[in-house]
Amino acid sequence: MVSDAGRQRSTAVSKYHISQVCDIVAPMAPTIRDGKIADMLERKLEELAATGMTYRAIARELGTSAGHLWRYRNGEIRSPSYALGTKIVKLHEKVLSK
User: In degrees to the nearest 10, what's the CA dihedral of 32, 95, 59, 48?
Assistant: First the structure.
C-alpha cells in the first residue's frame, strides 16, 4: 500500500517531469507524427560524433554503454527508450549550442 507521502512525491515528480517533457518533445513532434523518431535520433548521434566526441564519450554523457549506442546506430535497436531519446536530444542541444 502506498502512503500519502509516497503519493505526494510521485505526483510532484510526475508534474515536474511533464513540464520538462514539453520542452523536449515539442521540436520532435513532426518527426514523431511521421514515425521517423529513430532516424532523427540517429542523425543527432552522428552530428554529436561529427563534433569530435567519441561514442564512448557520448555514451558516458547519456548514462549508457558505447555498445548500446553502436547497436542502435547499426539498426539492431530500432526503438530507443523514451529516456534515452530525451537524453540524446538534450545532449545534442547542449553540445551544438556552444
Answer: 70
Q: Residue 82: in which H helix or E strand, if any? A: helix 82-96
Read off the pLDDT of residues 18-72 as tens digits, 9 standing for 90 and up. Answer: 445 555 555 554 444 444 777 888 899 999 999 999 999 999 999 999 999 888 8
Look at residues 59, 87, 63 and name the one whose alpha carbon lies nearest to residue 73. Answer: 59
Among 11, 83, 71, residue whose Cα is nearest residue 42: 71
Query: Which residue has better confidence, 26 or 82?
Result: 82
What pLDDT sits at residue 38? Answer: 78
Residue 34 to residues 10, 18, 30, 39, 93, Cα–Cα distance (Å): 32, 23, 6, 11, 22
